[in-house]
Write a structure and sequence with these properties.
Layout: H1 12-18, E1 22-23, E2 34-40, E3 43-48, H2 54-67, E4 78-79, H3 91-107, H4 112-117, H5 123-132, H6 137-147, E5 153-160, H7 182-189, E6 191-199, H8 201-206, H9 220-228, E7 232-238, E8 245-254, E9 268-275
Helix pairs in contact: 2-3, 5-6
């Protein structure tokens, strides 16, 4: 009440300053995004990679701010790690997950974000929602799913080899029988594969598991968003193991560094996927003409 009704976007740098957290001019030494560094006398500073997009910098800063909500944050350097490679069995990784949750609360605060999210029904609407809060598309999709009342999930896809190919394709120590450059062969062999998904509370109760590393064909709204760099909507069949069903898909391209682009410079993709059928059935996976996943 003293400061009036908050309005977005939240000024994250001002919040850090208000909490007595310094902003260092140094680049992160141990992270590609950001790190919280002790500077003595119980004080800390944040190092941020200035080459990251503004939205990623904001989220990374909010992530490091959240570290200060937990005990012993001054004890060592805390580095923001890649969410794709974290394990809940590792206490530090679990803390990193909690700090991502805290960052979402700071960047995309309830009840304002939740109210705005209920009005979104298109992929373009998701992009506009992210712009309104000056948030990354990834963070917006995760928050959208985590706070939504319907049964849906945020799903994230990147261009990569399947696990069994990693030791045989693109190995610089191996020579191709046809003289093909290993790096070129690895690039051409990449497909858009599921990294991970975030279910809404309702989907978590009734929805089946989405197995990672499934690949999509070069068709449908997910690939269209990746190849065109534009939002794409559509209803399609997704053969996600036991989760095979028709889904409504709101797909948007996400920021992708050069080394993770697809064979034809396609982006990674984030999407909100919602079952179009009440009772998904894996029996429909045999419908070859509608199959997006292999």
């Amino acid at each position: 009440a003293i400061f009036g009704v908050p309005t977005g976007p939240i000024d994250i740098d001002a919040l850090a300053s208000f909490l007595g957290i310094a902003r260092s001019d140094e680049r992160p030494a141990h992270s590609q995004d950001a790190e919280l560094v002790p500077i003595g006398d119980g004080r800390v500073s944040i190092r941020v990679n200035p080459d990251r997009p503004e939205t990623r910098i904001r989220f990374s800063t909010a992530h490091e701010i959240t570290h200060t909500f937990f005990p012993n944050y001054q004890a060592k350097t805390w580095c923001r790690t890649d969410a794709r490679f974290r394990s809940r069995n590792n206490p530090d990784d679990l803390l990193e997950m909690l700090c991502d949750i805290g960052a979402s609360e700071l960047i995309l605060p309830a009840p304002w974000f939740i109210e705005d999210a209920t009005t979104v029904s298109t992929a373009t609407g998701l992009v506009e929602l992210a712009k309104k809060y000056v948030a990354s598309r990834e963070a917006t999709l995760r928050r959208f799913a985590e706070s939504h009342e319907r049964s849906l999930a945020a799903a994230f896809f990147s261009w990569k080899l399947k696990p069994t190919q990693k030791q045989t394709i693109g190995n610089l120590k191996q020579t191709s029988l046809f003289g093909v450059d290993p790096a070129e062969l690895a690039l051409k062999s990449k497909k858009l594969r599921l990294d991970y998904s975030i279910p809404s509370p309702r989907f978590l109760k009734v929805g089946p598991y989405f197995p990672p590393d499934k690949s999509i064909e070069n068709d449908g709204p997910l690939y269209m968003a990746a190849s065109t760099g534009q939002p794409s909507d559509g209803e399609c069949w997704l053969n996600l193991g036991q989760s095979a069903a028709r889904y409504r898909v709101l797909a948007i391209p996400v920021w992708t560094d050069d080394e993770n682009l697809g064979p034809n410079s396609e982006n990674g993709v984030g999407a909100i996927i919602e079952p179009a059928d009440i009772n998904p059935s894996s029996k429909k996976a045999s419908h070859g003409d509608h199959r997006l996943f292999e």
